[in-house]
Amino acid sequence: MSSLHEESLLRSRGDEGSPRKGLRILCIEDNEGDFVLVREHLRDAGFEVAPEVARAASLKEAITLLRDEGKRGSGFDVILLDLSLPDSHGPETLDHVNQAAKDVPVIILSGNEDRDLAVNMVHRGAQDYLPKHFLSGDLLLRSILYALERQRSRLEMSALNGRLTQTTHDLKTAQMQLIQAEKLDSLGRLAAGVAHEVKNPLATLQMGVDYFSRHVEDIGDSGQMMVEHMQEAITNADRIIRGMVDYSRSDSLKLELRNINVIVRKALRMVRHEVIRNNVKVDRHLATPIPAVRVDEGKVEQVLINLMVNAIQAMGSAGRGNGERPLHIETFWGQLEAIDRDLGLRDYDRLRVQDHAVVVEIRDQGPGIPEDKLTRVFEPFFTTKPTGEGTGLGMSVAKNIIDLHRGHIQISNVENPRGLRVRIFLKAYELTDRMKRLTPSSALPSSET
Ligand SMILES: Nc1ncnc2c1ncn2[C@@H]1O[C@H](COP(=O)(O)OP(=O)(O)O)[C@@H](O)[C@H]1O
Ligand SMILES: [Mg+2]
Fold it and tell me: Model pTM greater than 0.85?
């Protein structure tokens, strides 16, 4: 639908439906005599302002004219069409014209008075069908005004329909987000409950294991080995439980102004063992100076550790034997250009476009995540790792914590080199004048999903 044309229609129309500015009418008619007659009728029709009448003597000429006008954005208001042209006959003529000028109403002027053909033409999109020998100024005027009115309603309806489709789409998205938020919320409460229930029996088991490890001489070698296995199992279960508690815990944050680079370095020290074990090389770019962030340091450190471990594991499994793979850690900052819609309801105090943000980017050269799984990784217990290796809680804990900080977490697959890129956006604080002068003129990359 061309809104330009809609505008030109409205501009040319008065409030009571009588044109104020001259209409532009294209008459597609090969017969010179017929054209002259139509023009005279139009002149006598009683338009408030005389219409401007152009003529095309063949379909080809008409199409060229319509295309040129369309390009210029001016366009005709109405087309009067004779179906029998030297280069086109019958109903197809209308189809061609409709195609060339989608939103311009067409009135058929015909030499014959065939009712079936008339109905057929209206079905095919003509606004009216007038036999030439009945033609009068009055008839033309009315036909044109009605055609314009119907056309205007049609355009309005199609605009409304577009808005309706958009609204339905928005509604569906919101509904999905609500369901997702609800699901995560109930999973969180479930996790907290399970964790609580499992902690006590686990403590009992731990006591038993402690007892037997103090009496190794009584249980023999195989007994000792069994105790070691049991200890491993308990540690594993405990790790899962702690992850679940972390996930469900929405306790308040201890927010303090911090330098994100310091937290990044700490997290890197915590994963050093994993880095070495998986033959990964850390590639670190930390921006200085960098604005402060208001964070719970321990929690953000945990987020970074979770993400780093994921990245390292992704490269470890994909790149074993391929030599060192770089784990890219970067911090930067700037003004936010765009934020994608987040899951759940939007909060008033969340990081917004135009805010200054500090970003931590963690990029690996692993296999990435299939596009259809990108949102699922934030679901608690979603894991593609074997039992015992993955709990599926790392990402959901990370998202929870970043949500609590009113920040954003964004994941995307990247190419060249292929891998996963995770970005954490946190609101920037204490920007000095010097920093403001340093703000990159190009805003932060918009976050696409
Ligand atoms: N850097 C990454 N590269 C590829 N896949 C990843 C990456 N990070 C997370 N994933 C995917 O997301 C899943 C969930 O991650 P997470 O919540 O940390 O749980 P876990 O690591 O215990 O499986 C992983 O099992 C993996 O499929
Ligand atoms: Mg993980």
Answer: no
